[in-house]
């Protein structure tokens, strides 16, 4: 097997494992609603917090030019470990909403250091076939994001243990990156963040439309990913059903 495809395989595996943190709180939200007596605002806050953390982390990474200051491998592995620690702290020590929100923001910021650097590493291996490689990596991200739902569907773990399982997967991701992932021969020269380039992009009609289209797509996609599990749980409960096509709601959410 050519080295670039082997590297794409291990990088995708690491991405899948690391991104299991993203919707881990959403996967246990029905249990948290009961145990913490969460209302609509608290439930929404837990879902939104990780997205806000990701946005803040992405902006900080761009402003600080972190993927150029640090090795993308080191940034990805360190971010996976940070996210695993924040998620595990929620599982082990948190019994109320306020600290949970703070830890979910930290988890989201950590995901900003795990996802974009993986794209940069992939690009160093693929000049040709980069579109296919991006598709495979994003597919790994998608499966990884849904993994906590699969854990809930296949096991009877309490919600705290589900979060700990997701943290364990993120630790494995860091190990995979450190031991197996390497940057390719087509490395990019270091570049400083230039806010004028953002304005230049938006002045060009094609990139501007692409950005707005991507914004709208991600708005609906992440809204669906964040809430589809709770929707399926509530729908099954209202109908007095145990699941969908023989699958419990958690497994059905993973399938979606």
CATH class value of the largest domain: Mainly Alpha
Helix share, percent: over 70%
CATH superfamily membership of the largest domain: MFS general substrate transporter like domains
Strand proportion, as a percent range, falls in under 5%
What CATH calls the topology of the largest domain is: Growth Hormone, Chain: A
Give the tally of β-strands: 0
End-to-end separation = 32 Å
Spatial shape: globular
Count of discrete alpha- or pi-helical segments spanning 4 or more residues: 13
| CATH architecture descriptor name of the largest domain | Up-down Bundle
Order of helices and strands: HHHHHHHHHHHHH
What value does the Rg take, in angstroms?
A: 19 Å
Task: Write a structural description.
- There is one protein chain.
- This protein has helices spanning 3-18, 24-27, 29-35, 40-64, 66-69, 72-93, 97-114, 116-125, 130-154, 159-180, 195-203, 205-239, 249-255.
- By secondary structure, it is mainly α.
- It has two domains: 3-184, MFS general substrate transporter like domains (Growth Hormone, Chain: A); 196-256.
- It is globular, with a radius of gyration of 19 Å.
- The protein starts with a helix and ends with a helix.
Write the layout of secondary structure elements.
Elements: H1 3-18, H2 24-27, H3 29-35, H4 40-64, H5 66-69, H6 72-93, H7 97-114, H8 116-125, H9 130-154, H10 159-180, H11 195-203, H12 205-239, H13 249-255
